[in-house]
Amino acid sequence: MRATLLFSLLTLFILGACSDSDEEQAFDVGVEPVEDAPVDPSNDAGSEPGDDIGSEPADDTGSEPGDDAGSEPADDAGSDASEDTGEPVTEEIVLDDQGAVCLGIGESQLMDFHGDHEGPPMEVGSTVEVNVMLDTCLGSCDISSESECQLHDHGDGVFVVSSSGAYTSTSPCPPDDSVCSNLVAHCGEIEVHDESFVVLHGDRHYYWEPGDERGCVEEGDDDAPMPLERSFEDEGRICFGEFDAGGQPQANMEAGEPFPVTFSKQACLSSSCTEDMQAQCVIDIDDEADEITLSTSGSYSNTTHLNESCTEDCNDFHADCGQLMFQQEGDYEVHHGEETIQLTIPGVPVCMSM
């Protein structure tokens, strides 16, 4: 019995020794993977083999495979592809009723950016060229330019200019005024009379008169709108006797019978926009010399360019000088300014012009 108990104790001792030996052996040859990597030791045996480095294999770089650079491929440089390749940017420039109005300076001269854009005074009877300088200093990067202009004569010194232009501007483009040229549109010509006139361009008014220097007026230097004041003396057309609406003479002038005397001046006036019309006519008769001298004068304000609602009728300036009567038949000299005609009584109605 004792022997059996001792044998059992010896057997348990031997088995326990073997068990301790095996456990030491396992520690001697085993290496904890987690100690070599910066991973929590508590995860040594608590994760799948793929977790040995603490993340899924696809997370090695902290993003999905397509996100290797942290953004879409086209965004690598942080800008559009056109900027990466240096492609130019284009812009269409359109110019309607814009720019400086130029009188008396040739189109080719105005196109020269460095040219002289001034000239001598405008004289009565001269013809001046009208142009619009739509834009200045177009360089080699401003392409496909075009321009157009029209000049409309509304009569009595009122001219309307309509201009348009366009070009394509490309950038970036280094500035270089040595290759600059101006964009110019030719409009037409104006004959200079002995009175002021106005050029309308868009909603702007430019007033000129004989003796003004030829040149350009910038868009922002336009004049305040005002009427065109007109006055004249011993000008126009004097008519003796009766005429119908078509200008044909009617009944003859007879001795002892009064007949009308009228004068008119060609002006193309709107009946609704001609203001302050005044006229004076004086008839001086020299019975001994059988001579007649007429003196005429007139004035008015033309406001057709200030009011868009003006009627478009085109009328002459008319005035009534009263009536004239000769007691004796015969020939009479009639003087008006520098003109002289012979009036025969009895005779058909007649006119004289200055």
Total of helices = 4
Number of strands: 19
Integer average pLDDT: 80
Query: Which residue ranges are poorly predicted, with pLDDT under 50 across at least 5 consecutive positions?
Result: 1-83
* Largest sheet descriptor: 5 strands, mixed
Shape, principal axes of CA atoms:
elongated
Radius of gyration, in angstroms, nearest whole number: 51 Å
- Tell me roughly what share of residues is in helical segments: 10-25%
**In angstroms, what separates the terminal alpha carbons?**
171 Å
> Structural class of the secondary structure composition?
mainly beta
Strand content: 35-45%
Order of helices and strands: HHHEEHEEEEEEEEEEEEEEEEE
Q: SSE layout and pairings?
A:
Elements: H1 2-29, H2 33-36, H3 81-85, E1 89-96, E2 100-103, H4 107-111, E3 119-121, E4 127-138, E5 142-153, E6 158-171, E7 181-191, E8 197-201, E9 204-208, E10 213-217, E11 228-233, E12 237-240, E13 259-269, E14 274-286, E15 291-302, E16 315-324, E17 330-336, E18 339-345, E19 350-353
Parallel strand pairs: 6-8, 15-17
Antiparallel strand pairs: 1-6, 2-4, 2-10, 3-10, 4-7, 5-6, 8-9, 11-15, 12-13, 12-19, 13-16, 14-15, 17-18
Please describe what this structure looks like.
The structure is a single chain. The protein has helices at 2-29, 33-36, 81-85, 107-111, and strands spanning 89-96, 100-103, 119-121, 127-138, 142-153, 158-171, 181-191, 197-201, 204-208, 213-217, 228-233, 237-240, 259-269, 274-286, 291-302, 315-324, 330-336, 339-345, 350-353. With 354 residues, it is mainly beta. Strands 1, 5, 6, 8 and 9 form a 5-stranded mixed sheet that branches. A 5-stranded antiparallel sheet has the order 3-10-2-4-7. The model is unreliable at 1-83 (pLDDT under 50).
